[in-house]
Design a protein that fits this description.
- With 160 residues, this protein is α+β, with helices and mostly antiparallel strands.
- The chain has one domain: Gcn5-related N-acetyltransferase (GNAT) (Aminopeptidase, 3-Layer(aba) Sandwich), CATH 3.40.630.30.
- The protein has five helices and seven strands; from the N terminus they run βααβββαβαββα.
- The chain has a seven-stranded mixed sheet with strand order 1-2-3-4-5-7-6, with helices on both faces.
- Helix 1 packs across helix 2.
- The longest helix is centred in the middle third of the chain and has 15 residues.
- The chain is globular, with a radius of gyration of 15 Å.
- The model has no long low-confidence stretch (mean pLDDT 92).
Amino acid sequence: MIRPATADDLVAIMAVENASFPTDAWSAETMAAELAGEHSHYIVDEEGGVVIGYAGLRGVRGAADADVQTIALLDAHRGAGRGRALLRTLLAEASARGAREVFLEVRADNPAAEGLYTSEGFVELGRRPRYYQPDDVDAIVMRLDLRAGAARAATKEETA
């Protein structure tokens, strides 16, 4: 079940964060600030009352763009469509805030995540060399045109 994250979820979110990003996890202080941020929207995915994943968006209401800050799931729950559900929930929130474009960075050594984003209509804009430290991994910068995505979704529904 996907629901809005609260400050009470911080410990569970940090467990997923540290398991997912062992070399470059955000600090609890940074994550707490994100959860409380005026322009942030964080969600968690629960199974049996246990947080198994989370995702975050930053977007000012009325602004033309928003940024996917993070998406993470515990290993055992990857590959089952839950990451896609988290992403789509963030994209719906970005659209509700008035964004027309959504940006994100993905590790170049994470083809599964890159494939997810590409399948949802994101396109590569460029790369940031050695962005992820201490691993020296490039970031792939991606962009989604939400208006084009809405048109694609409407076309899929009409042909279904």
